[in-house]
Design goal:
alpha/beta, Rossmann fold, Four Helix Bundle (Hemerythrin (Met), subunit A), 3 domains, four-stranded parallel beta sheet, four-stranded antiparallel beta sheet, 15 strands, 45% helix, globular
């Protein structure tokens, strides 16, 4: 089964059979969030896309090392002006808190939302600030090989020098000639040899909050550098898959290819996989035009564009209804249709549990299973897979109404098929089952709060704070009262 999976490689611009470097092991690196704001609808698409790929690779019995980074420094507000301000630093100044408080706050929100969407945790989740030494070592290697240069405490990648030997622009299709004619030339970029050279290390101004000592003075790493350094550290100089959103092709992933190739003398990544964007009522999602929707707002319904609240599984189902490489347009009508479709699918699975077997079958379950595998093997074609699963829904309802027959063996096969594709591979959950767990979950939370109250009476403030922090990570906000006890609430703003 393993050798039938075909993936679209953004680098070669074609689908091909996936063949990992090592027979039973897959190394996969996916660009994670820059944690300076709440997780939004746009974050959900890559999260679910690469969760689907991760789940299917595990189903194929590969051992997978899935690395997803956290960008907590180096992502400038305006990547065309590298004298601009780091997004996290800017947010810290706005909220009058430490940059690492910004990081922790929004990283907690991201993890909670990923749990709600039922995405599997990555094998490793490295942070840029935890790998400053590796990034500096990567820069030194590039300087030594002549592909980077230092100027006034900053270090830049020499794109023109690189292009004399390698093909800069091979991923995005942007030629160096086009870059030369279109690049904005700013006075602040005069220290670069060429305006399209990008920063590997930036000198920190006296007011810059996030800074580290380096061979070139105090500064901070460029955004593109972290992924080259961390992917190689955890997956080796060559690895199988690098994923991310289509918006990262240029400049981020193009710069990654250049850095890694120049430093190592070879390309690191064999398959580049990119998910397409989500639009809202036909428009690109942006804060400036007011159509920016966070996941918490979707789950609560508290946004002017929302006519109701939508559950995490409705969002997941909605995203899986479109192929990951196609644009997906959000609207209330589309989400309501997804809600109904998900409900119909889960209702059929419940019906299947109670179907009485016949002596013979009038439905070919083996053929249905083959079509499901054919769809998922075709570049993770989740919409076609779902169409086959709804074919199964039609069969289940027909058997339940006495119009078709299934033997005991075929009922077991159909149950296995639905469990494998709906729950294991697509990662959907029956929200009825989730809600049935509510009394049990409430009891666990109440018990945690009661234990914390006892700990507070003993004045063990450190342990008390630790319990509060752990509950906050899963979306439980503890509210201390004047009498020394506490209340709690779920999914706070």
């Amino acid at each position: 089964m393993q050798n039938k999976l075909k993936l679209y490689n953004s680098l070669t611009r074609r689908k091909s059979v996936f063949k990992p470097l090592r027979r039973d092991f897959v190394g996969m690196y996916v660009c994670g969030p820059t944690v300076y704001s709440d997780t939004h609808l746009g974050h959900a698409r890559p999260a679910i896309t690469f969760d689907l790929l991760y789940r299917y690779l595990l189903h194929l019995e590969y051992k997978v090392r899935y690395v997803r980074n956290i960008t907590d420094v180096g992502h400038l507000e305006d990547e065309t002006n590298e004298e601009g301000e780091d997004k996290i630093t800017k947010k810290a100044k706005q909220e009058k808190i430490e940059p690492m408080e910004v990081v922790q706050k929004y990283m907690n929100t991201f993890h909670r939302n990923m749990y709600q969407l039922n995405t599997k945790e990555p094998s490793i989740e490295p942070r840029a600030t935890g790998h400053i030494i590796e990034q500096q070592e990567f820069i030194e290697k590039l300087i030594k090989k002549g592909y980077a240069y230092e100027k006034n405490g900053s270090v830049y990648f020499d794109v023109l020098k690189y292009s004399k030997k390698y093909n800069y622009g091979k991923l995005s299709g942007r030629s160096l000639e086009k870059l030369q004619s279109n690049t904005r030339i700013l006075e602040s970029q005069d220290e670069k040899k060429n305006p399209f050279d990008f920063a590997l290390w930036k000198k920190a101004s006296p007011k810059h909050l996030m800074r580290w000592q380096s061979p070139w003075g105090k500064g901070f790493p460029g955004w593109h550098l972290e992924c080259s350094a961390m992917s190689v550290k955890y997956l080796g100089e060559e690895f199988d898959i690098h994923g991310g959103g289509m918006d990262l092709k240029f400049p981020h992933h193009e710069c990654e290819i250049a850095q890694s190739t120049a430093a190592l003398g070879k390309e690191s990544v064999r398959y580049w996989i990119h998910n397409n964007m989500i639009t809202i009522n036909g428009q690109k999602m942006a804060r400036s035009i007011g159509n920016f929707i966070t996941l918490d707002q979707l789950f609560s319904g508290e946004h002017k564009l929302l006519s109701q609240r939508y559950t995490p599984m409705t969002i997941r189902f909605f995203i899986l209804q479109a192929h990951y490489r196609s644009t997906l347009d959000f609207s209330n009508e589309a989400l309501q249709a997804a809600e109904k479709g998900l409900s119909r699918l889960m209702k059929a699975i419940e019906t299947l549990k109670n179907i009485k077997p016949s002596d013979v079958s009038t439905i070919d379950i083996k053929n249905l299973e083959g079509k499901c595998y054919e769809a998922i093997n075709d570049d993770l074609n989740s919409p076609i897979l779902l169409s086959h699963l709804f074919e199964a829904v039609k069969y289940i309802n027909s058997v339940n109404e006495g119009l078709e027959k299934l033997s005991d063996t075929d009922i077991a096969s159909l149950k296995s098929l639905m469990n494998t594709f709906v729950f294991e591979i697509l990662g959907l959950q029956n929200e009825k089952d989730i809600s049935n767990d509510a009394p049990f979950i409430k009891g666990l939370i109440d018990a945690s709060i009661n234990i914390r109250n006892i700990i507070k009476l003993n004045k063990d403030w450190s342990t008390s704070d630790k319990i509060r922090e752990e509950l906050d990570k899963i979306g439980i906000k503890v509210k201390d009262k004047k009498d020394g006890t506490a209340d709690w609430e779920i999914n706070p703003k």
